[in-house]
Design brief:
This protein has 245 residues and is mainly beta. The chain is built from one helix and eleven strands, in the order αβββββββββββ. It comes from Hymenobacter yonginensis.
Length: 245
């Protein structure tokens, strides 16, 4: 948390110093939006689960430092992310086969600091926009819900049952040993890019967030809970901001 805030404050100080020297036009205001995100899995030679989008909210404040047709836009946001996935596994012993169908929903909460470089066709007045820039995000907490259907085929006899279980998400730098907790990297980082339109103080943007930091944590002794396994935050975001002069 202290590292995140220190880098955020340092970046803000450098930005203000640069904008003052270049006589930028500064405006700021609220930003709200909707995220449609997923968790991208890369398990090497193993089969990855099928994924789908999870929707969440974002809200916070944005600063616009305008230099002609270019602008720097840092924001501080509360952002809901996560994803949905499905997977199937089975095992066979003697004449009995068990099949497991999993449906998993992961809800994650972040404090996010994106810094975008924005090009507007009409400068301070707005117009069509393209933007890109890095982001860092600090995990605040989360929860996983897993619905499981089990089918047991023993000869001609077939039995099915369903179960649901939950895991809290702990964002940390060190994996623990509690089985009812999912441990993920505390700090996420990646790139944002997209398009938008600005009319006066009102701005609408549609972007894509490309997470580049593996969310899976190793055990303290260096062992991986899933060798060659990686997962990343990915997804779309739509936002509205209103900048006050």
């Amino acid at each position: 948390m202290h590292i995140f805030l220190r880098h955020g404050l340092l970046g803000s100080a450098l930005l203000l110093s640069a904008t003052t020297g270049a006589q930028a036009q500064l405006t700021f205001g609220p930003r709200v939006g909707l995220n449609a995100t997923t968790i991208h899995y890369d398990f090497g030679d193993c089969r990855e689960p099928e994924t789908s989008l999870h929707t969440g909210l974002q809200a916070g404040l944005s600063l616009n430092a305008q230099f002609g047709k270019l602008a720097v836009q840092p924001s501080l946001l509360y952002s809901q992310r996560g994803g949905k996935s499905t997977a199937t596994a089975s095992d066979t012993y003697a004449d009995t086969t068990r099949t497991f169908d999993f449906r998993n929903t992961t809800r994650l909460h972040y404090l996010e600091l994106p810094v975008n470089l924005v090009y507007s066709t009409k400068g301070a007045q707005g117009g069509f926009q393209v933007f890109a820039g890095p982001y860092v995000a600090l995990g605040l907490g989360g929860r996983q819900t897993t619905d499981m259907d089990v089918t047991i085929q023993a000869g001609a006899q077939r039995t099915t049952y369903a179960d649901t279980f939950f895991q809290n998400v702990d964002f940390t730098n060190k994996r623990g040993e509690v089985s009812q907790v999912e441990y993920l990297q505390a700090l996420d980082a990646g790139l944002n890019f997209g398009v938008g339109y600005k009319l006066g103080g009102l701005q609408a943007q549609l972007g894509y967030g490309l997470g580049l930091r593996n969310m899976i944590l190793d055990y303290p002794d260096g062992r991986s809970p899933m060798p060659e396994g990686k997962s990343y935050n990915r997804g779309l975001h739509f936002s509205l901001a209103y900048f006050l002069g």
